[in-house]
Design goal:
Number of helices: 11
Pfam family, one: Ldh_2
Organism: Georgenia alba
Structural class: alpha+beta
Strand content: 15-25%
CATH topology of the largest domain: Ribosomal Protein S8, Chain: A, domain 1
CATH class of the largest domain: Alpha Beta
Mean pLDDT: 96
Protein name: Ldh family oxidoreductase
Distance between the termini: 12 Å
Family: Belongs to the LDH2/MDH2 oxidoreductase family.
InterPro entries: Mal/L-sulf/L-lact_DH-like_ah (IPR043144), Mal/L-sulf/L-lact_DH-like_NADP (IPR043143), Mal/L-sulfo/L-lacto_DH-like_sf (IPR036111), Malate/L-lactate_DH-like (IPR003767)
Length: 348
Amino acid sequence: MDRSYPVDALVALGARALEAAGVPSADAELTAAALVDADRRGIASHGLLRLPLYVSSVQARGVNARPNPTWVREHGAVAVLDADAALGQVAMAAATERAAQLAGQFGVAVVAVQNSTHYGAGAYWTERLTARGLLGILTSTTGVTVTPFGGVEKVLGTNPLTLAAPSAGPASLTADMATSAGAYGKVVAAQNEGKPIPEGWAVDADGRPTTDPTAALAGALLPFGGPKGSAVAVLLEALAASLTTASYAYQTEDIWANRSARMNTGHLLLAIDTAAFTSREHTERRVADLQEKVRASAAAGETTFAPGDIEHAHAQSHAETVPLAGSTVAQLVELLTSLGLETTPLEP
């Protein structure tokens, strides 16, 4: 049964666990805040469910607790960051800030990241841009989990795609999604909770459709949208890795399988300054108009949401407390105990 816990206490808990593993306090707090924000949005697959993985990977040195990120190339509106195997949140904080600076100078910016790891929910980073009047497009490689349309062998990652535009309304217009039919973290969560996954998400090791999350993890996830979704996933893989020395998914040893693996994850972030076109106010009004038109398209008595509405509403309703699945709480208690830390506030 899910229980709710104070947001501030969960961020502090996550930061303490990461610090105990050797992560500097500022990086630990940043990472913990990003994880809890995902839980607030209702994206548990990218929330504190991931904390034990992060901590064990830091301990095994798959993730570098104290990296030295370096800008290895800067050319006009383009910059490339070598993250030195940092936590993905640490890498993305630097990438997002540089993208915003370059977009303010040139009107548009493209920042590529190599030698990184999982950055969590993409909307956390694009909303740093929309808050400054910028449009954001973000994608990333991951570990190998997905077979292309018509295939059986795992070749691709879940290749997340986040698109975000600033709005004069209460929330940005944001689409944040995996290009697999279901997020890898959701399959892991289903396995932890002993629940099936939806049909059409995965095949087992023999290529047969399955709703068993354990069989899915041993087999392969499927791309969303059949051949069209598969094509998008393949192109995102190219965008996220081919511009740098980042690894493709099929070249990556995932920290889910080997905590000491250096994943060399690649990210690609595009930032567009709305003020370079008409004005920030113009774009935000136009985006808000579109959001309202989408919402107004519902049949009588029904509700239609603009992209990002559900996550924004979930975050607003969980501004102070966040529900966590019982399986996640059990793993967090086990993690804190192993680190010699107090399990408060997770105790009943």
